[in-house]
């Protein structure tokens, strides 16, 4: 049985469900929080043209689950636009980490050496995971610094809301991933395990930072 990872139809549909989410963030989040070098809208569109044809966007209508995701982001903007940073961090870190791994595995499946720069540049369907002018490490470090600098200025209530939305990211991602035909229960189990592990790390970091802040206040 062919793995969904190597099924171009499944891969294209996966790109399609996240296209509107990334596009929304890149249109709404200031460059201070989402630097232009991380923007992927044009790259999503390039890959989707490869898979779905030149006129794919004319036929595109976001699924109901994706529209619900976008509605939640819009509601967050009304509450506190800074909360969108939770989505920026997890989605773009996912692209810079897991997205790179998945693309390399797909390249191996097509007998393309994923570790050679030339191979990555020649792959016509890998634009969204290709960052030509910046190293992945550099981009990750910059994104972490943005989040750390912002987090240091948060009050307790906003910090808790950021934690809530960090968990909500995985819930919404799982919901739209389930709509991709060909992503079976085994793949969803992997997604859930990863989401739970990352959520646990976030929670641990939050508890440690809260305890540290409390101890600092007591010493003043």
UniProtKB/TrEMBL annotation:
<dbReference type="InterPro" id="IPR016084">
    <property type="entry name" value="Haem_Oase-like_multi-hlx"/>
</dbReference>
<keyword id="KW-0408">Iron</keyword>
<dbReference type="GO" id="GO:0004392">
    <property type="term" value="F:heme oxygenase (decyclizing) activity"/>
</dbReference>
<feature type="binding site">
    <location>
        <position position="89"/>
    </location>
    <ligand>
        <name>heme b</name>
    </ligand>
</feature>
<dbReference type="InterPro" id="IPR016053">
    <property type="entry name" value="Haem_Oase-like"/>
</dbReference>
<comment type="similarity">
    <text>Belongs to the heme oxygenase family.</text>
</comment>
<keyword id="KW-0812">Transmembrane</keyword>
<dbReference type="GO" id="GO:0006788">
    <property type="term" value="P:heme oxidation"/>
</dbReference>
<dbReference type="Pfam" id="PF01126">
    <property type="entry name" value="Heme_oxygenase"/>
</dbReference>
<keyword id="KW-0349">Heme</keyword>
<feature type="transmembrane region" description="Helical">
    <location>
        <begin position="190"/>
        <end position="208"/>
    </location>
</feature>
<dbReference type="InterPro" id="IPR002051">
    <property type="entry name" value="Haem_Oase"/>
</dbReference>
<dbReference type="GO" id="GO:0046872">
    <property type="term" value="F:metal ion binding"/>
</dbReference>
<feature type="binding site">
    <location>
        <position position="144"/>
    </location>
    <ligand>
        <name>heme b</name>
    </ligand>
</feature>
<protein>
    <recommendedName>
        <fullName>Heme oxygenase</fullName>
        <ecNumber>1.14.14.18</ecNumber>
    </recommendedName>
</protein>
<keyword id="KW-0472">Membrane</keyword>
<keyword id="KW-1133">Transmembrane helix</keyword>
<keyword id="KW-0479">Metal-binding</keyword>
């Amino acid at each position: 049985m062919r793995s969904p990872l190597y099924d171009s139809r499944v891969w294209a549909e996966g790109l399609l469900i996240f296209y509107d989410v990334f596009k929304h963030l890149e249109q709404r989040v200031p460059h201070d929080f989402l630097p232009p070098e991380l923007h992927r809208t044009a790259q999503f569109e390039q890959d989707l043209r490869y898979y779905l044809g030149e006129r794919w966007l004319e036929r595109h209508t976001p699924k109901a689950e994706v529209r619900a995701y976008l509605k939640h982001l819009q509601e967050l903007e009304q509450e506190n636009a800074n909360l969108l940073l939770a989505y920026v961090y997890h989605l773009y870190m996912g692209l810079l980490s897991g997205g790179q791994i998945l693309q390399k595995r797909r390249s191996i499946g097509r007998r393309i050496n994923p570790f050679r720069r030339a191979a990555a540049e020649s792959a016509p369907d890998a634009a969204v995971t290709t960052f030509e002018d910046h190293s992945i490490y550099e981009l990750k470090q910059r994104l972490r610094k943005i989040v750390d600098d912002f987090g240091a200025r948060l009050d307790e209530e906003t910090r808790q809301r950021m934690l809530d939305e960090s968990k909500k990211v995985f819930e919404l991602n799982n919901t739209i991933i389930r709509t991709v035909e060909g992503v079976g229960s085994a793949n969803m189990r992997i997604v859930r395990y990863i989401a739970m592990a990352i959520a646990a790390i976030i929670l641990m970091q939050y508890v440690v930072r809260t305890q540290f802040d409390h101890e600092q206040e007591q010493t003043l």
